[in-house]
Design brief:
The structure holds two protein chains of two kinds.
Chain A (H helix, E strand, L loop, with lengths): L3 H11 L4 H16 L5 H12 L6 H14 L2 H13 L5 H14 L5 H18 L4 H12 L9 H10 L3 H29 L11 H26 L5 H19 L5 H34 L2 H12 L3 H18 L2 H18 L4 H14 L8 H10 L3 H24 L2 H9 L4
Chain B lengths: L1 H46 L7 H15 L1 H6 L8 H4 L3 H33 L11 H5 L1 H26 L6 E2 L2 E2 L7
Antiparallel strand pairs in B: 1-2
The chains are: A mainly alpha, B mainly alpha.
């Protein structure tokens, strides 16, 4: 079988075809060209089998849990709690934005949900307090990428499924990089606050006030603890953890806070099923691509070509990071992982990079790509929420992107940053 | 020339719109079933020390159906991820010609897979699910149904693009190269 499918796929992608159809039409055209139409049955079977998997239930469940928590008013409680902790600092509202994103990441697992929820709440008050609109939007977008890095994470579920890596180990491995990005962004904000004389908007909260805000937010903050605790204790798998997350979110929003009625619940279920349908169809199509990449000999050809460039693992890791960063500028993290994972991961694991370590390099790099121009989804959300032009946000986000790229380099060359926690928890 | 095209678009839209919306609503119900089954599995194992061995099969069947059922509305509403930066840089008429070609190709690949799905469905007649007495033909049956629905949507999209090219009115809202016809969230 020739590798024409890949060039057809790239051409269709460049012409604006939906990725899911490009992933099927490319191989289809290639099979016709090669006179191998008997493989259409295999194409369909791979596509079907790609969807027919119990672990994939985690994808709609995590989306549903995030939607429920967001619609149920949990975001406001998280922001109040973050305000009580860091709101009094110079540039405090920007710090609140970042800390809220870190806390929200433990619930949503989606950068878009994070940018939308936190941005709607904080950008208007940041602008009222004297921050420039591009800066407020840039902080929101930069911080939102923490969403899929700190567990739970939608893209890690996808990676774990397609590349057969423990999802629990990936979740645990994401904790340190997520916290590092958060702390890096907070430190950058602190430096910029002095330079740009960012305002101090809130007075320092007393410990009593902090306790009060914690009481409002503890139901949300408990969720990641329940999930990780349940998985680590062996009470449930990563997929079942996602179902528990939904049940917990349902109980909190529907019965404790009573912030969601039946009409809203129906809307959330419908929105969830459409969002997850788009992602999981891509999973099915990406599985067919992975199969073709293997049977056509393309994976081994790319591997030998890459290794012939240099046998220095560190240099190869730098090159792959640059490639991922470039791809992340144009493609959403989920599809990029589904397309590139089956091609790149076997190459790097064969030269001694740990599968969980490489998974984190890919996931973090492509997630940061969500906040890079010209096709950064999170940039568009921040632009829509703030009413600021994307090009102005891009200028303001550059210092934050530099920090995020630094963290990518750190986790690339210090595997201990990603592997220590899963090893400590006995997940690998 | 335009009258038959308009009639065909109207006819296809009359079929495609409700199928897409019903599919999505049904998929939402299946999501509730998946959730109930997954939670029942955890409860039965943790509380009653008893494994619901049929749970995984039911959940997987529901997942396959729910994912495939959202495909037509995803296509019609332009929700599927696409890289539009390069396409948008093209002159509108070029873009419309390319869009027409790609939507025709979508119809073609769905038709090819539809032909192959016959064998899949036939095989389902002789297979029963591992833990529940359900013939797999009922599960596999969703594949040709959805592929047929996608072919109809591809045809509708292609006709809309062809009409725009014929009338020189290139004012369709595109997501990548897909005309956004059904943009509602519920």
């Amino acid at each position: 079988m020739s590798v024409a499918f890949f060039w057809f796929f790239i051409l269709l992608l460049a012409l604006g075809a939906p990725v899911v159809f490009a992933l099927l039409i490319g191989p289809g055209l290639s099979l016709v060209l090669d006179g191998e139409t008997r493989y259409f049955a295999a194409l369909l079977a791979r596509f079907y089998n790609g969807i027919d998997s119990f672990p994939l239930l985690a994808v709609p469940f995590f989306i549903l849990a995030g939607e429920l928590m967001n619609s149920g008013g949990i975001t406001a409680a998280i922001v109040r709690f973050a305000q009580s902790l860091v709101g009094h600092l110079r540039g405090g509202l920007a710090q609140v934005n970042i800390l809220s994103s870190m806390l929200f990441a433990g619930i949503s697992g989606s950068a878009v949900a994070d940018a939308s929820a936190i941005g709607k709440m904080l950008i208007p008050s940041m602008v009222r307090s004297g921050y420039t609109r591009p800066f407020a939007a840039a902080v929101t977008a930069a911080a939102a990428v923490i969403g899929p890095i700190i567990p739970p994470s939608g893209i890690m579920v996808l990676y774990g499924f397609v590349m057969n890596v423990s999802i629990g180990a990936l979740f645990a491995a994401g904790i340190v990089p997520g916290v590092l990005i958060g702390l890096g962004l907070m430190a950058t904000t602190r430096l910029l606050a002095t330079r740009y004389k960012l305002p101090v908007s809130l007075k320092k909260a007393t410990w009593q006030e902090r306790g009060q805000s914690l009481r409002g937010a503890y139901l949300a903050l408990l969720m990641p603890l329940i999930l990780l605790g349940g998985m680590l204790s062996g009470l449930f798998t990563a997929t079942e953890a996602a179902a528990v997350a939904v049940a917990y979110a349902l109980i909190v929003t529907r019965f404790v806070l009573r912030s969601i009625d039946n009409v809203e619940l129906r809307r959330i279920f419908v929105a969830t099923v459409q969002q997850s349908g788009v992602i999981l169809l891509l999973v099915g199509a990406a599985v067919t691509l992975g199969w073709l990449v293997t049977v056509s000999g393309m994976a081994s050809a790319i591997a030998s070509r890459m290794v012939s460039l240099t046998d220095n693992v560190y240099l190869l890791l730098l090159l792959v990071n640059l490639l991922l960063f470039l791809v992340g500028m144009f493609l959403d993290a989920g599809p990029a992982i589904l397309i590139l994972g089956p091609i790149l991961a076997p190459i790097f694991t064969s030269i001694g990079v740990h599968p969980v370590h490489f998974a984190l390099i890919m996931c973090v790099n492509l997630t940061v790509g969500l906040a890079t121009p010209p096709m950064g989804l999170v940039l568009f959300v921040a632009s829509s929420v703030s009413g600021e032009r994307v090009e102005n946000i891009v200028k303001a986000i550059l210092p934050f992107l530099a920090v995020e790229f630094l963290v990518i380099m750190l986790i690339t060359y210090f595997p201990v940053l990603t592997l220590a926690v899963p090893r400590l928890l006995g997940l690998m | 020339m335009l009258r038959p095209i308009d009639k065909a678009i109207h006819w296809l839209a009359t079929i495609n719109a409700p199928i897409a919306r019903w599919g999505r609503s049904f998929a939402a119900c299946l999501l509730a079933i998946m959730l109930a089954v997954a939670l029942a599995q955890i409860l039965s194992r943790a509380v009653f020390n008893f494994t619901l061995d049929w749970g995984e099969d039911i959940a997987r069947m529901s997942l396959v159906w729910s994912v495939l059922l959202t495909a037509p509305i995803g296509y019609r509403s332009g929700s599927h991820v696409a890289i539009s930066a390069f396409a948008e840089a093209l002159p509108p008429r070029w873009l419309y010609w390319i869009a027409l070609l790609i939507n025709l190709l979508v119809g073609w690949i769905c038709a090819m897979l539809l032909i192959e799905s016959r064998a899949l469905v036939m095989r389902g007649l002789s297979i029963t699910a591992a833990t529940v007495p359900i013939q797999m033909v009922w599960v596999y049956a969703i594949v040709p149904v959805v592929l047929t629905a996608l072919i109809l949507v591809a045809l509708e999209m292609s006709l809309r693009l062809a009409r725009a090219l014929l009338t020189h009115q290139v004012d369709l809202v595109l997501s990548g190269v897909v005309p956004v016809v059904d943009g509602s969230a519920d």
